[in-house]
Structure formats: C-alpha cells, structure tokens
Amino acid sequence: MANHNGAASDLRATFLDVYSKLKSELLTDPAFEWTDGSRQWVERMLDYNVPGGKLNRGLSVIDSYKLLKEGKDLTDDEVFLASALGWCIEWLQAYFLVLDDIMDNSHTRRGQPCWFKVPKVGMIAINDGIILRNHIPRILKKHFRTKPYYVDLLDLFNEVEFQTASGQMIDLITTIEGEKDLSKYSLPLHRRIVQYKTAYYSFYLPVACALLMAGEDLETHPTVKDVLIDMGIYFQVQDDYLDCYGEPEKIGKIGTDIEDFKCSWMVVKALELCNEEQKKTLLEHYGKENPADVAKIKALYNELNLQGVFAEFESKSYEKLNSSIEAHPSKSVQAVLKSFLGKIYKRQK
Fold first, then answer.
1. Can you say whether the dihedral through the CA atoms of 336, 340, 346, 349 is positive or negative?
2. Nucleus as a keyword (predicted)?
3. Residue-wise pLDDT tens digits, 120-148
4. Helix (H) or strand (E) holding 112
5. Host H or E run for residue 108
6. pTM score, whole prediction
7. Which of 10, 94, 114, 273 is deepest in the core (most CB within 10 A)?
8. What dihedral do alpha carbons 96, 106, 117, 198 form, nearest 10°?
9. Roughly what angle, to the nearest 10 degrees, separates helices 331-344 and 306-326?
10. 309: closest CA among 341, 258, 269, 272?
11. If we measure between CA atoms, which residue out of 52, 164, 35 comes closest to residue 108?
C-alpha cells in the first residue's frame, strides 16, 4: 500500500500545483483592470473556499482519464488539462457551498467558519459566489478554446449546474418553515433531490469530463450516466446513514439531519416501516432541536432495525451496480466505474 499512497500524494501535490497556476491566471485576467485590493480579496476568497475539501471530485477526473487511456503514460499537458477540468468541478462545488451556507444560515464548513461568517465578508459572499461561478468559463476558455470538445465542455458544465440548482430548489421548497409535513417525504422524492442536487455534479460530471478529453461522445454513453447517478444515490444514502450512525471523529462532522427536518433516507425508510404508534413518535419528535427529541427518533430507528435495513440496501445496491457495470461493452469504461464503486463501497467516512 505504501507506494500506492505515495502515488496518491504525488497526484494530489501535482493537482495543487495546477490550482496555483490557475489562480494566478485568474488574478491577472486581462478582461478586468485589477487593483491590489481586488486581487488580494479574490485570492483570499479562493484560498478559503476552493482547495479546502477532500478534492475527490477533482482528482477523479485525472484518475478516470488515466483509466480511459488504459495505462498509457500521460503527457504533462494531459495531466495539466485533466487537472484543470478537475479544478473546474472544485470551483463549481465552492460556488454552490458558499451560497448554500448563506441559504441555510450555517456556521461551519470543513471545520472552519463559513465564508459569509468571516468578519468583513458577510453578504459580499453572494457576489463571491457569482465570481467563483464565472471563473469556470474563464478557465475553460483559456485552456480548451481550441479543443474539438470545447463546446461540449461548456454545455456539460451549464447543464450540470442547472440540474444541481434545480435539485437544491426541490430540497429548499420541501423544507419551507411552517410547512413541515413529514407525510410528503417518500423514496421517490428523496431520489429526485439526490439525483439532481448531488449525483450529477459529484459522480457524472468528473467522468463526463474525462470522456470528453479522451475524445468520446457523451451521447454514445447513456448507460454510463445511469450507473453514475445510481452510484451517487447510493453514496448519499450512505451519507444519510453516517449522519446518524457514523462516528463524528471519522466523518469530520456532527450529524444534524434529524434536527434539520431533512428528507433523509433514514426517515423515509422509517416512515415506510413503522406502525401507527411509531408514526406518531416520528411526527411528534422529528425536526426538533432538543436532544431528547433527537434521542427518541434514534431509538425508533434502532427499534425498526434501520442498521440492518441499510446493510441490506448496501449489498443489494453493490450487486446491482456491479452487474450494470459488467454489462458495459468497453473494458476501460468498466474500469472507471469499478474504481468509483471501489472507493465508496462500505466507506466509513
């Protein structure tokens, strides 16, 4: 394993070098007359919001491209371009998170205060979000303009952004204050929210970027999209489960889905499996801040054996995803999909 981790940390270091290069290009973008003040602001904003996460989405563009090239050594240029696309996804993520945190009035993100909670930032964070969003086409224009797949890339990012924003909308309007109605929560609603809000940009987008770079036409790979969306849904169900049963030391956050009245897989399954008496408990205690209410919900989850129900969901999903992958005609595309599945199966964080 040691040499594998060495390779992974090298890849990460190379990836972070590309961030620095893209950042300095953006901070000298000739379309704007920069001042020291504006340059410092944007640099601080980028460093605070873009490179701070696990970078899974960005790194998986490079991983996927390598697998599509079937082990041929990549040129420095290919590594740079795949990294640049990976960073475009990380920029997209940063844009969503900066604005999401304002909408949710969150306090912390990745173990530090949300950007809008930083002194002197406040609502300027909204405009910062818009700037993050606008950096993506700047990066694409500078490095991909002359590529035959340039228009496809622009289309892809636009489409996925629209799908993600629309998923966020369903999520927001489902949990409007004063209209908290648990009875509208169902598996199909959970699936729609997750598909649009998370799966497209976290699972489909990195692979679609790699396919375009490898000269593939996305239209000829509809099954790839379907498998990746299903993987994204499986990933989110794990997330919902870990929010309740994960160890905070491992997952790096304290779960609050119960308090926040989230349309979580856990509550949807509980609604499906409970009797009338248990349903009363759910309706009465779900979405309340009080730790006693939360404890009642968790006790009910245990009573319904949701840990067992989840374990069964996990193995069924894994089998289903695996057979979908093995039905794919291309061995290199199979390798990409299997690598994704291997990373998330039975994860603990």
1. positive
2. no
3. 999 999 999 999 999 999 999 999 999 99
4. strand 112-113
5. strand 108-109
6. 0.93
7. 94
8. -10
9. 170
10. 269
11. 52
